[in-house]
């Protein structure tokens, strides 16, 4: 039994506090909770018609769940008493704990005392609203909400948020999303979001899971959650905040959470097969689609509408996404064309025109022909007229035709409204029962389709190995930045491909070294971080005189000189960077390199360890990759050598994870096939050595 089992599915509920506690009692009664509710109050005889008790000791038994709605100091006392009574768990409503550490010296201490008081008893929060179990009608919730209880035998999604207000707002949605459970995580003082999620997905009435994440409670916890969700075939959607600096700062003041690097968070979710969306509407629509269809087998979509304008908007909405509207094959095109008049141009997205509007047999024939193309999701764009001024009688023939087409082809389908308000909530349950997912808004529908397709793709891949978090934790103390000569010496010692180079103290030594290395050479000023910006590097020096001149120019800029053989036959330049994330350890950034790296912003983030397949997939995702394959007749690059080099650099970072704070290889020059990939520049930042 999961440790949250009693809390999530209580048969007895104890409630502590004043107005909020009374609301909890009233809400559970209103929802039809069949178990016992035991209010605890020092003076009241009863709360909402239920007998009140004076203390935990007076309760008839050990409650499965408790809502603790008293001040922060008393919360600790109540939690301790509940733990000693062997209660199943408690929701801690009060704020004023670790989230106030910036302005209240007692918050951190009180949160530690709360966790100690709970012992082995699970607690949710503090600083949270709690739990709504719509499946059983059990509410540990001190406010109004907009949800309804699931019907007997019904199923729905589970949602966990780190914001109580966002949770309330989600219950107020009018988009037809059936919710089985809603939880808020608060400060995650003892029980983290991943542990709550693991408890929820075990319930057979839960179809999929949505997470609003300010910060991850545990890398290992999320890895366990993702593995179990995959095993149970219950997909997960995440809305991870923290893209902006303001958002990261807000999470600290909200729940004392550290949002961390957004790029690393995105890479982590992708590795786990958890789809990420960026807005609350997309979150709702993606959950709804997954509730009905589950993950999609691919990215191929079809769209039908009786408007060329809508067809154009649908086509544009797929631009830049993985989901797409593939062109019809000749056979399929002919089949669809045979059901329509000569004036209709057949394409995907399809504008079937108004010629067949409200002609149910004709629409059924066209829709059936279109859906027969084996698409992963078929969309019918349909906005209903407003009922207070218009009639929607003619719309139902269209729905029946689409339903018939889906059943004939055993296909997945969605009704997409261009405006959210043009799809009445009262129609949504019936549409889903008939196999048509109601999706509100074209952009949100595309977000949902992409999320469902991504999860389908991720689940077809081998499960990723656990992340190496050996370098996680607080940053090391003082940082040391070896110069390029020393950094490259370490890379050479690790067996990595670095051009031959020598340190030089003056112009004469630079000339001697260049003659020994062989022309052409590169000459650099040591001790300079961004050499190109300061003019501290000279390339393609082909004779002693040019080396001497360059050495006299560069010597005043740094702490010495470094002479290096030029890399020849370069096709492209890559950036291979590593930083130490406090949550995830060493994180790799792979992208287009050179002096325009910040401007081009063509990069991808990977967790470690990264397989060769991971690295190759990342390379193929770069805008630069066609250049590596021989763009427009240019020479092909040594991609295999590039992958070897990147994998070797990543291994070097992992082997020295406790010491390396940052490693920036820019550029890694990828040469023509057979000529390798070479580390042309390296910036290494070291911290205090920790168990290397």
From TrEMBL:
Gene3D superfamilies the record matches: ATP-grasp fold, A domain (3.30.1490.20), ATP-grasp fold, B domain (3.30.470.20), NAD(P)-binding Rossmann-like Domain (3.40.50.720), Succinyl-CoA synthetase domains (3.40.50.261)
Ranges where the CoA-binding domain occurs: 7-97
SMART domains the UniProt entry points to: CoA_binding
SUPFAM superfamilies registered for this protein in UniProt: Glutathione synthetase ATP-binding domain-like, NAD(P)-binding Rossmann-fold domains, Succinyl-CoA synthetase domains
Listed GO MF terms: ligase activity
InterPro entries, per the entry: ATP_grasp_subdomain_1, CoA-bd, NAD(P)-bd_dom_sf, Succ_CoA_lig_flav_dom, Succinyl-CoA_synth-like
Keywords: Ligase, Tricarboxylic acid cycle
Tree of life domain: Bacteria
Any matching Pfam family: ATP-grasp_5
UniProt protein name: Acetate--CoA ligase family protein
Organism: Mesorhizobium onobrychidis
